[in-house]
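User: Hi! I'm a student and our assignment asks us to look at how structure tokens line up with a sequence. Could you show me two examples?

Assistant: Happy to help. In each example below, the sequence comes first and the structure tokens follow. Example one:
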Amino acid sequence: MLGFKDLMALVGEFLLHWSAMEQQLGESISHSESQELDPPRSRGPLKKALERWQGLDVIQGNKKLASEVIDQIEQLRALRNLIVHGLAGANSNPDDGAEPYIKCVEGGWEAPGEERKVTVSELKHYSEAVDACRRGIRHPSHFNYRL
């Protein structure tokens, strides 16, 4: 049985991996563009930062892998936004014996839509996937886990 604190920790793990990926994106851009940012950051919308990153010299010769990293980040961004803006509860011990999950509301609280459950297995899978994106941003050849 998974404890509630363990379930909360998995949510935090995903979000910390996301933050580390954004930090790596900023560092990669800053380093390649010879900027001294403290702390390094991508500044602005994620999509624009990813476009800047894809145009860096280090990416040349690795365009296909870089595109795969970007595609995976875009897929994961939807989940990140769902969790950040729509987290509505969790169940670490469902009565029906199902896998523990967090519950999110599509559209957040401003325009609530359908509820979506994200299981522990999914959270672990998505955490690994976003961390692979961080590694892929450092260098596309390090991108080694796909959704």
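Example two works the same way, sequence first and then tokens:
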Amino acid sequence: MMAEETSSGRWKITLMTAILTALVGLLFVAMARGEEGPARLDRKVRVMERVLHEVLVQSTHVRTGMGDTTGIVLDDYGAVFFFRGELGGEIEHAPDMALLLRTIEETEEDDRPEHGEAAPGAAGRRGKSLAELKKEVEARRAGELAALRGELVDTLIDYGPTLGELGDDRWVVVAGVLDGGFFSDFEGGREVRLVLKARIRDLRQVAAGALTRQAMAAKVLVTEQ
């Protein structure tokens, strides 16, 4: 008897939970229908803005802070999300890069004229020239930039389709200004302006399963300056 009452109680709880869930769902639907298109789009832009900020905060390839990410809607164009950060994230704390930096500094010190041409440099102690060491840094920088670019493409593909109020020909754009960060003192460590853009039409096809993520990634237009 006790088992039957327990089973009945659980069933009632399950039923009530289902009913409450349905009512809450209906409430949200009613609210959404009563919300005008521009206001609904603005709300979704704010959501994607927070998502992009969180992606950047969690990334190990860039360092950014509060207020460094914002999104706006441009009439007859689409939604544009801006961010600012430092390339490399926490890379300066990586032991291998710290050693590389110290070696380059010592090599540049030893290469100064007052040390004489025959002075043994730090690069010689590592068996690498200063040019080779700097090439390592440049390769690491390019890798960090490529990894960040991949994270931003994924964000566009995952969350761009949620901006359904935009027309098919409109764009979803992520534009960032990246300080050189750890790489600022090296050749090629200049500020980078990174822009990624995708058509809403294409993003919707991914959400509908008509286009693969790989194919969509190839459609994302990327410019770096």
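Here is something you could point out in your write-up. The first helix runs from residue 2 to 34.
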